[in-house]
């Protein structure tokens, strides 16, 4: 007994969707990880390659950041405030939601305050939506980040 055409077409569609979701999630994870590498290198232009034109960022203790230029200005201030940045990504969850990929992660590491020379430990909880731009490049679209308490053993 074979599968009917409609049943086979449905299975092919499900397989294609799963493959597409996996590709989108892999692209989003690569975008996130490369973004952190560029940040550690204090490469502002490199960071901007991964920001969608319509990006919106919500961050603790500041107004919403809307658009690429506002994002550039925010990150330029942040990068100039630190001399040594060594942050990594601890991905908690990745899932595809329609045409977007949602990733929740912790950013953890250390950075050195440029003014005081004090080394600061950092841990922030983050959630972002990633989506492809018109050129087909995966970019940050919506971002929320907030300080998090250190994990307890």
Automatic annotation (TrEMBL):
Source taxon at top rank: Bacteria
Matches recorded under InterPro entries: NTF2-like_dom_sf, SnoaL-like
Species classification: Bacteria, Pseudomonadati, Acidobacteriota, Vicinamibacteria, Vicinamibacterales
Chain segments annotated as coiled-coil in the UniProt record: none
Entry protein name: SnoaL-like domain protein
Ranges where the SnoaL-like domain occurs: 40-132
Pfam families from the UniProt entry: SnoaL_2
Organism name: Luteitalea pratensis
């Amino acid at each position: 007994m074979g599968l009917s055409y409609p049943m086979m077409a449905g299975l092919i569609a499900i397989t294609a969707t799963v493959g597409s979701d996996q590709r989108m999630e892999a692209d989003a994870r690569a975008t996130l990880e490369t973004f952190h590498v560029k940040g550690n290198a204090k490469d502002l232009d490199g960071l901007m390659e991964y920001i969608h034109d319509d990006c919106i960022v919500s961050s603790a203790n500041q107004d919403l950041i809307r658009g690429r230029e506002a994002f550039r200005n925010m990150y330029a201030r942040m990068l100039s405030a630190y001399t040594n940045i060594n942050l990594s990504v601890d991905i908690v969850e990745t899932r595809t939601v329609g045409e977007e990929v949602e990733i929740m992660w912790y950013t953890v590491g250390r950075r050195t305050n440029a003014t005081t020379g004090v080394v600061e430990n950092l841990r922030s909880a983050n959630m972002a939506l990633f989506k492809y731009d018109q050129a087909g490049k995966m970019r940050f679209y919506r971002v929320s980040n907030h300080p998090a308490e250190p994990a307890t053993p």
